[in-house]
Amino acid sequence: MIALLVRDLRLAMRAGGGFGLGLAFFLLVTVLVPLGVGPEGATLAKIAPGILWVGALLACLLSLDRVFALDFEDGSLDLLATAPIPLEGVVAVKSAAHWIVTGLPLTLIAPVLAVLLHLPEGGYLWLVVSLALGTPALSVIGTFGAALTVGLKRGGLLLSLLVLPLYVPTLIFGAEVVKRGAEGMAIATPLLLLAGITAGAAALLPFASAAAIRINLR
Amino acid sequence: MSIWEYANPKKFMQTSAWALPWVTVLSVLCLLGGLVWGFFFTPDDYKQGSTVKIIYLHVPAAMMAINAWVMMLVTSLIWIVRRHHVSALAAKAAAPIGMTFTLIALVTGAIWGQPMWGTWWEWDPRLTSFLILFLFYLGYMALWEAIENPDTAADLTSVLCMVGSVFAILSRYAVNFWNQGLHQGASLSLDKEENVSDVYWFPLLICIAGFVLLFVTLVLLRTRTEIRARRIQALQAREKLA
Amino acid sequence: MEMTVHGLACARGGITVLEGVGFALRGGRALVLRGPNGIGKTTMLRTIAGLQPAVAGEIGLPPESIAYAAHSDGLKATLTVTENLSFWASVYGTGPDAVEAAITGMNLGILRDRQAANLSAGQKRRLGLARLLVTGRPLWVLDEPTVSLDAESVRLFAGVVRRHLAEGGAALIATHIDLGLDEAEVLDLGPFRARSPSEGGALSAFDEAFA
Hints:
The complex is a heterotrimer.
Chain A: H1 2-15, H2 20-37, H3 41-62, H4 66-73, H5 76-82, H6 87-116, H7 123-148, H8 155-166, H9 168-182, H10 188-217
Chain B: H1 9-40, H2 55-82, H3 85-117, H4 125-146, H5 150-178, H6 198-241
Helix pairs in contact in B: 1-6, 2-3, 2-5, 2-6, 3-4, 3-5, 3-6, 4-5
Chain C: E1 2-12, E2 15-26, E3 30-34, H1 41-49, E4 56-60, E5 66-69, H2 81-91, H3 96-105, H4 121-135, E6 139-143, H5 151-166, E7 170-174, E8 185-188
Parallel strand pairs in C: 3-7, 3-8, 5-6, 6-7
Antiparallel strand pairs in C: 1-2, 1-4
Helix pairs in contact in C: 2-3, 2-4, 3-4
């Protein structure tokens, strides 16, 4: 399984753009929103937690269709399904690789982009913490969506339609943590709920994703 | 004689053909009776005036919007466990109906909300949850449409329905947490104190029965269509092969 | 190492295409599947490899014994020949020695550091087949292994298969061309074509509705 993770990361690096595109998209969102909303710092500060979370979520969504599509096209997925690794493990590794390539860099760059949106000082720490806790859930849920749509020719749009409603709880709790952090309120409740969703999704969804892959390979 | 006998497509077609006229007539009667009683023979509310009467559409539609999803979840589980085609097709047939009920609940809610809260749309937890439920229906139906092989589609949509149900419940609580909301409490509950008064209660019950029967009628009709379509597909696939 | 298939029926797109297939395959033997296009060779191999469920029948074989090679090779274009093989070696728990043996066996020595993207179609196929050698599995299930191979490579591959058989392995091969494996048994799938219900074949799950 470590071999698979190493391979996926190596592929992402060699293909180029694996890291770059999501980050560039995230940057674009945080630049476009002030252009649309207006430059008043107070307004931006108020909506910053939401914008940053929605931006990170959409950036995550961008690369989801590639989680399984490439392996499906070149036949690797068939071979992986017959290999001695359980398919649940393959799926979990794929989510992990997706997170390292998109979720982790998004988490690290978010505080820099938060400066552009005048996020209040108290929010920075919780922005990073909430993204670090929440983006794994985005990758795991997204992998499930990718598993459902892996055999489809034009799965990209459908994938977004399937995955975005599933992102609702993560988004709500994640943005709430940052909002409360920025306002200096207690953050324990949403933070724990966010962590709970991530833990639950990471523990259970790989089984559903693996089932979906098996059905799609039939 | 077991209940699973009705999952045989042929048996289902026979039984539903027999039952359809009855449920159709009953649902029309209940809906007409309940709505006429409710609209014309109940007093105006002392606070809400006659706007309260939209309750006879809003509440049953909202209930059926959720019940339709529950029914899809149950039929999906039956398909996964017992592989009865009728079950999967019934889930497929119920989705657009459930979505329409969700839409009715949202629209009547907006029409009710305008005079009461002074706005067409409020990001109230209940309204928001229904909007999210609407998105779940859209995704479910889109997945059915996108997959060519009917068995694969049935399997994948069942998995989606199960995972979606968990996330729908999570979203419901998340949305509650996110905004406390303006919406009044449940209109119906076992606790008598919280209930709407008897004057509204009885016609409302009849309307709910009417909506349930309407749902059953539509699901039976659509499932019959789906079974026929599936049969045509199977024949065409065989022809292509021969 | 013995594999037995008994009364196997398999379906493609919900329609049963083959029924009543049965054979036994012992270590050291090869079985070649023949039959016209569309008869269901690929479907049957996928069923045996465990990628899709059998409609009926039994497949008896020791666990973890199959190495499956499909039409597509599952190569990663941006990885080199050695990296591609090393990945599968670690998935199957075999070591770098197996990789070396596979590279020599399929004559990939001079290409070892080239990216798979820069290989010709035949070279890619050779790399795909070299993957079989690093799996260390006794039963090879091969779907049209010789597509895009030239005559010399076909001979090379036949030699590889023969060595595998000599070491006690077995191979189940669907192919149209003659591999030059004279010792291989041949199974023609023609007689196992599934009959349609009008010819007295079994009803599928959805025929009973209007029977």
